[in-house]
Amino acid sequence: MLLQLLVFSCGKLQPIQAVFLKAFSGETGIQVCKKMAYEMEVNLIDPLFTEEQKNRKHYDDRPSHAQVDYLVMHYTHSNLARTIETFTSNTSENRVSAHYVIAEKEEISQIQGGEVIQVVPEEKRAWHAGTSFWKGVQNLNPYSIGIENVNKGFTRQYGVLGGT
Fold this sequence. Notes:
The protein is mainly beta. 8% of the residues lie in helices and 26% in strands. The strands form three sheets. Strands 1-2-3-7-6-11-5 form a seven-stranded mixed beta sheet. Strands 4-8 form a two-stranded antiparallel ribbon. Strands 9-10 form a two-stranded antiparallel sheet. A hairpin with a 2-residue loop joins strand 9 and strand 10 (137-138).
């Protein structure tokens, strides 16, 4: 197994906008707490949404036969607030998520680069790999941990189209 899944205890819950003071505008309904994971402090999103918000969990159970063997790294092409909103929006369609989000430094929002937010518990299957295939394995979501790096990607400034 690539990663040893974590059993965690969480500190005091607080609104995510209290942790990232200038990143979110208004009430999000997202609660976070601090925990230690792999010898670093992580902000864990509380998975206990109300029944009316049940679609904010963009994950499900891993199949019983699934063993985590892969890390799938992505970049968001967006900022931290928009990424978290996308991964926790209360919708039943087109849901997407990753286990972890690593923040890029955002001066306007006063976010330090390297802040880690755990969106999906490691024992659950996040929906990040889409239609995927690697070394004979089709659909990597059950077999992987997804990590999103908040990063706008390539920009026109470097001569590559697609950025903002």
